[in-house]
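Its record is retained below.
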Amino acid sequence: MKKILITGATGHLGSSTVRFLKEKVSTEQIAVLVRNTDSDLVKNYKHEGIDIRVGDYDNFESLTEAFKGIDLLYFVSGSDIGKRLPQHKNVVKAAVQAGVEHVLYTSTVRNDESEDAPLFPVVDSHKQTEDLILASGLNYTILRHNLYAEVINMFIGDKAQVLQTKSIYLPTEDGEVSFVPRKDFAEAEAIILAKPEAYKNVILEFNGSEQVGFKEVAEKLSAVVGETIPYISPEEGEFRKQLAEVSLPQEIIDMVVMFSLGIANGEFNHKTNDLEKVLGRPTQSIADFLKETYA
């Protein structure tokens, strides 16, 4: 019986993966990595009989202790891009030292790995982490994620904001994205965790079943909210100016610009069917996702 550790278990992806995994294996096989034990979610995990391991990506010693007795590590990438690479070095080194057999790592799709690419800070940290894993001697499954469908809501706001602005205003030009709802990532990755031997030492590219740009998102959203929501793709400078005028923090502006330009650059226009094969079905359509989110 393999012991499976889910990192990021109090985050959206990690907790969803735990939920799907509980349907496939005994809770005795599941452990979760958390930074503190005070949250209601962690208390629920404990009540369900899930093994609670305390550790922090910034603390190598805590990881080596938390990874003891773990056979299969679900390694959710760190969210702080500036700290990601040193954190990930800690995770990989600790996994090797603790004798982990197999690591599943949530990486990213990409086309352009050059230093002048819009998404270089994101892509490079993932690429270097993949290289660390490949060089470590660990068995691996690298899961290259396309964009979460939930970033649509992050970029354009909730229903009230959309009805107030009455537009989608992003410098994504005609770039298309193979969006994936988070729950589809989580379900697929729980399937792999339950039967890891079938996915040992492979790189999978997890893309949605359809490719859409924000012009099409605007059209589908218009049908959901019952108002015409036009799509406007401004120049980068004008976009930054408009966001600054509504007092958005600079780090938020930089993040939205970086991903918008990455979309325009074709970084997320991928069409592989790896995710469909694992799920045994297409991913949720963007039309249905928008209905769930904005109806």
Notes: The longest helix spans residues 81-98.
